Amino acid sequence: MFLEQGIKPHNKFWLYLIGSVLIIIASFIGQIPFSVAVLYKTLNNKKGFSFDNASVMKIFEPNLTLFLVIISFAFALAGVYYVVKYLHHQTFLSVTTSRSKVDWKRIGFSFVLWSFFSIVSFTALYFKSPENFIWNFKLIPFLILVAVGSILIPIQTSTEEYVFRGYLMQGFANLAQNRWFPLLMTSLIFGSMHVFNPEVAKMGYVIMFYYIGTGLFLGVITLMDEGIELALGFHAANNLVGALLVTSDWSVFQTHSLFKDMSEPSAGLDVILPVVVIYPILLFIFSKKYNWNNWKEKLTGKINVVEISNQ
């Protein structure tokens, strides 16, 4: 069982606090190239720059910014690997899945499924309000985005999944000895990590419903499927397809996408609909394909610590 793989006599919760600090330090080290590049650009520009987050993200050409920013996630992912191996004495596989090896078909199915939903949703939105979008396609920058994004964006999304649905979910399971607490805590922390996104400033805190709801959905499919493969595929599709399809002046990343959204952002059905309608549909599809059952026990049940300690 996935959560139980992290519950060992030597794996105390305070080790996860230390491990989290080490992963954050690794991420900060990965931010050095971007910080140095920003500093160099600033010193060589007589006009100077504003150092708020939105302005800093626009200093460089979008593909270069994407590359420099996501480097930090590669360092953080390496941090997760070494923390799991040397601090917790676990294999990387144990924070990935309960199966004997990673199920790449699960990752692929989830990726294709959410890519399809994303493209259909955007197409419907475009035909509903075509005046809100302009054609943004530039061949060479777009091809570079495809190449860079296809490699780096899955690194970014995988890092988040390994931290939240893998490492921290097992950590909170060690603390609470049940399933509902890790599910809720990782969802809340995952959503809170997005509070400084420019979308929140534009749409208000109501968009946190979407972020926390997405974290909850990813946690549910992890617990029901006993591994993070489906979450890995979904998250990679969500960010990669989004980066390739549409950008805007108020999003976290400005990319050389196919379209640019020129509308004024507002929190409406697009915030609520995925959480209350689309995610339940995905859960239904996954449950039928992978024969999920015993939902209450897998999502809220206690963990038998005595049985684990005797293994």
TrEMBL record:
Keyword Transcription: no
Pfam families: Rce1-like
Protein's UniProt keywords contain Membrane: yes
InterPro entries, per database record: Rce1/LyrA-like_dom
TM region(s), chain numbering: 13-43, 64-84, 104-127, 139-159, 179-196, 203-224, 267-286
Any one GO molecular function term: metallopeptidase activity
Keywords from the UniProt entry: Hydrolase, Membrane, Metalloprotease, Protease, Transmembrane, Transmembrane helix
CAAX prenyl protease 2/Lysostaphin resistance protein A-like domain: residues covered: 143-241
Superkingdom of this protein's organism: Bacteria
Protein name per Swiss-Prot or TrEMBL: CPBP family intramembrane metalloprotease
